[in-house]
Specification:
Elements: H1 6-14, E1 19-30, E2 36-42, E3 48-52, E4 55-61, E5 81-86, H2 91-98, E6 100-114, E7 126-135, E8 138-139, E9 148-155, H3 170-176
Parallel strand pairs: 2-4
Antiparallel strand pairs: 1-2, 1-6, 3-4, 5-9, 6-7, 7-9, 8-9
């Protein structure tokens, strides 16, 4: 259960309303260098700097065009999916798809309470989702419709579904059973020249 900061609790106790913003943080590999780079979006109108987990992050304003459905938390090891819509025509979103490799990028979604009078950040943003970017299809609408980029996110529980590499190595299989030669040529089989029809 997330810990709600005291300033946020005080504002909620006043019962004058709330102003919660959504922060989307993505860490993906640069296609040219292979180095991980980060990119952030939030539901505000302009670029803004937020303090998240002791780290200063810059988030690009995308306004209300970010469509984030309610995120529900549940117990267990089920891999949950969340779909987020982004406007495809902004420079930052284009960079996410063209300059970075979005597949399996690390993703965090935070809820940031804001002061309803000043619009300033009220305490630490609360993390609501942590996982990976599974797909990023771009939806092209018909004439008169709206184009959007849909991010399909999966929760961190997906790590529990990955197989152990120890079961795929020939040396590891032979260490368990010296007579197991099932993967003896697995590292070189792809390099063998095979004649067409041979």
């Amino acid at each position: 259960m997330p810990i709600v900061p005291t300033p946020t609790q005080n504002q909620l106790a006043e019962r004058r309303g709330t102003d919660g913003q959504v922060l989307l943080w993505i860490v993906a590999k640069n296609r040219d260098t292979g180095a991980p780079e980060s990119l952030g979006f939030w539901t505000g109108d302009d670029h803004q700097i937020f303090l998240v987990g002791g780290e200063v992050r810059t988030y690009y304003g995308a306004g209300n065009v970010i469509d984030v459905p309610p995120i529900t938390a549940s117990l267990g090891f089920q891999v949950r999916q969340t779909r987020i819509k982004l406007p495809p025509l902004t420079d930052e979103v284009q960079a996410l798809v063209r300059q970075y490799d979005p597949r399996l990028a690390s993703v965090e979604i935070h809820s940031c309470p804001m002061d309803i009078d000043t619009g300033n950040q009220l305490g630490e943003p609360i993390r609501m989702f942590k996982g990976f970017l599974n797909e990023a299809p771009e939806e092209i609408a018909r004439k008169g419709g709206e184009n959007f980029l849909q991010l399909v996110l999966v929760s961190s529980a997906r790590n529990l579904t990955l197989g152990l590499p120890l079961k795929r190595s020939s040396s590891e299989l032979q260490r368990r059973d010296p007579a197991d030669l099932g993967r003896e040529y697995s590292t070189t089989a792809g390099e063998w020249p095979v004649r067409w029809g041979g």
